[in-house]
Structure formats: C-alpha cells, structure tokens
Write a structure and sequence with these properties.
Number of helices: 9
Distance between the termini: 19 Å
Shape: globular
C-alpha cells in the first residue's frame, strides 16, 4: 500500500552477553509477531505477548541466542493454532535438531504434538535473502563467528535497523550496509580490550576492533550506533574504553542498549 507509513518498533528483551540479575541474553521483539534471537529475555514477556510471536529469526546456534526458544514453544504451543516458524541458516537448524529438539534435551516439536500440527516449523534462510514476514521486510546479513552466523537488517520508515549478530571483523557486512540507508546500527562488543586476544579467538569484537570495523562504514545519513552483548562483569570497563575513544575517529554517536528499551525506526 503506497503512502502507508510503517513505524517499526524494536523492543529490547535482552542485550547482554551473559545472565545476571537485570541482565538478559539477546532477543529483540519486532512489532508483535517477530522475534530476532531467542535469548533469556523472552522469558520476561507475558504469555499473551508470547502467543503473538509467529516468526523467530536466529542469528546462530549458540545457547545465549536460542535458550528461550524450547521453553517458549512449550509455554504457548498448545494455545496456538499454527506452528511458530523458525528462520535460520541450514547449519543452525541442523544444530537445533541434533542438540536441542532431539527428544533428549527437549521434545522434537517439529513433529509434536503431531506431525500434522507441530509447535515448530523450520524455514532455512541464506545470506543476502530478503524475507517479507508479518508486514516486515528483513534482509539476512553476513556475520563472521565461530559457527555459521548471520545478522539482520529490518526496513523501517526512517531507514533500516541493522543488527550485526555475533561477529568478529566482517568486511562483507560494511560492503553491504554501505549501500543501505541505515537508521540505527546495533553492534556487539562482547569483551574489553583486556581480553582482546580472547575476543579475536572467539570472533567477537572489543573496543579496538569495534573502531576498526566502524571506520569501514560510510552511513548515508548520521545515525546512532548501539552497543550490545557486553559481558556483565566487563560492561563498565567496555563503556569506559568506548568513552575514551576519540569521537572524531569514531565519527558516530555511540549509545548502549538497555533491556526494556524500545527503538522506533
């Protein structure tokens, strides 16, 4: 429909690299029907809101991004009249089937309660693909992590909301988003520079590598950068290190994601 403006609402259910009081692992709720990653923050939603989630997009198979998915399906599956569709890379789907929904760790909800009416349906995705889900246009972005991984860009009224996923240095990401009108960038910085060797080995960013990444980005309009996925014990240190960076070197306004925050794009 031309002339209809869709303000896209992104609710931050979790944006921490680990659990602790007040810290929830990664999960974003787009409008009402789409979940991007299914970390522990999903557990804070009332059942009525969980019931509305029709699509879950997973960036990768690590536990902090999938932990709430099995539990959520158990909580709402019986009340829903259609399966929840899980959109993920084939390798991520294979990991879920082998290690989570394997009738050992959790029931195989892709065939239960019955193969005709399961709680869960898998939909493979690929980097570069564009999906139209529940009125949202979502593009699958490349990520560089220790398991196959992606990020996501979601089209809003003022431009695209971009989420890096878990990633180390990732030239392909900048190559792609330099051609998109980005309205907000959410990018991980899991470790402080004290742990930059561990960050490099685990394919996460730390403030020095964050700077190197952001220098490759040429946004078409000034736009905020939100830091996510900081480890709770290192968060303060990471914030201090990023504050000490030269703003001219960064060239972007840096903010921190907070659990419970809502971004309008």
């Amino acid at each position: 429909q031309h002339g209809v403006h869709h303000i896209m609402q992104v609710r931050v259910l979790g944006c921490s690299g680990a659990i602790a009081q007040g810290c929830r692992t990664t999960s974003f709720l787009l409008n009402q029907h789409i979940l991007i990653d299914a970390g522990t923050g999903v557990g804070d939603l009332p059942v009525e809101e969980m019931l509305r989630i029709d699509h879950v997009l997973l960036s990768h198979s690590h536990l902090d991004h999938i932990a709430a998915l099995p539990l959520m399906l158990d909580a709402v599956g019986g009340q829903r009249n259609a399966p929840v569709t899980v959109h993920a890379l084939p390798a991520t789907i294979a990991a879920l089937q082998q290690h989570i929904f394997n009738d050992v760790v959790w029931p195989d909800f892709s065939v239960l309660p019955s193969p005709q009416a399961p709680f869960l349906r898998y939909a493979p995705i690929d980097v570069g693909q564009r999906l139209l889900l529940a009125g949202c246009t979502i593009e699958v972005l490349p990520a560089a992590h220790t398991v196959p991984a992606v990020g996501f860009a979601v089209q809003g009224d003022q431009g695209w909301w971009v989420y890096s996923g878990d990633t180390g240095p990732n030239p392909a990401l900048w190559e792609r988003i330099n051609r998109l009108p980005v309205a907000a960038l959410v990018i991980e910085t899991a470790f402080s520079s004290d742990d930059c060797a561990l960050a490099a080995r685990s394919l996460h960013l730390s403030p020095p590598s964050l700077v190197q990444e952001l220098q490759q980005w040429r946004p078409q309009q000034p736009c905020p950068v939100y830091i996510t996925h900081t480890k709770p014990l290192q968060t303060q240190r990471i914030l201090e290190e990023i504050h000490q960076l030269d703003p001219t070197e960064l060239g972007h306004s840096i903010h921190w994601l907070h659990t419970g925050q809502t971004l309008h794009v």
